[in-house]
Amino acid sequence: MGRAHEVRKAAMAKTAAAKTKVYSRFGKEIYMAAKAGVPDPDMNQSLKRVIEKAKAAQVPADVIKRNIEKAKGGTGESYIEARYEGFGPGASTIVIDVLTDNLNRSLGDIRTCFNKSRSNLGVKGSVSHSYDAFGILSFASEDEEGVLDALIMAEVDVKELEVEDGAMTVYVEPTDLYKAKDAIDELYPGIEYDMLETTMMAQDVITLESDEEKMLFDRLLTLLDDVDDVQHVYHNVQL
């Protein structure tokens, strides 16, 4: 698969603006998880898991605390998950997950991004069928055999395991993400994760041929990044 280096490079390349986007994304997820149950991670498993993901993404403790307190305050905010799919320049495809309090606004914003980059918004299922979902864990280790044994003992469905420059990246079934985390936590008490999340990966990756296609695709990604409701963007382009 050869994705470990790209995964870590993307994680390390976050700008200040990108970090703000990450904080906002996790802030919504933390707020919703806290609001849906007890606003205490020791008593709310969903909240605990979102916080673990947020910490792996370097979200500051004050951002986590602020959104939990916001949920405790009983504000009337509520968010809905939605997914949009479409076709970008060349043979590119793209999947966008949003968390929004206004579906009409989100759809309008996403459609504008596609229109401004000469791309086409598709219908549900038009693109996502060519993507696979994975859970990803990345952490410091070179003991492939030891980690794999621990995961197999925990009955984790391991799709792939890579080691590069002292860092290990494990790809698992999305439903096994936290089962895998528990097994690794037991193997390496106190370990910190560089990545702990679920993601979508294209079954076939393409390269954009012309400068115009590359320019339009970059424009599409930039426009989508500016939409507050956008939580995740997945695509099939080798950058």
List strands and helices in order, with pairings.
Blueprint: H1 4-12, H2 16-36, H3 45-56, H4 61-72, E1 80-87, E2 93-100, H5 103-116, E3 120-121, E4 131-140, H6 144-153, E5 158-164, E6 167-172, H7 177-187, E7 193-202, H8 211-225, E8 230-235
Antiparallel strand pairs: 1-2, 1-3, 2-8, 4-6, 4-7, 5-6
Helix pairs in contact: 2-3, 2-4, 5-8, 6-7
How would you sum up this structure, described in words?
The chain is an alpha+beta fold and 239 residues long. The chain is built from eight helices and eight strands, in the order H-H-H-H-E-E-H-E-E-H-E-E-H-E-H-E. The chain folds into three domains: 4-72, Arc Repressor Mutant, subunit A; 80-129 and 204-235, Alpha-Beta Plaits, CATH 3.30.70.980; 131-202, YebC, transcriptional regulation domain (Alpha-Beta Plaits). It has helices at 4-12, 16-36, 45-56, 61-72, 103-116, 144-153, 177-187, 211-225; strands at residues 80-87, 93-100, 120-121, 131-140, 158-164, 167-172, 193-202, 230-235. The protein has a four-stranded antiparallel β-sheet with strand order 3-1-2-8. The chain has a four-stranded antiparallel β-sheet with strand order 5-6-4-7, sandwiched between helices. The radius of gyration is 19 Å and the shape is globular.
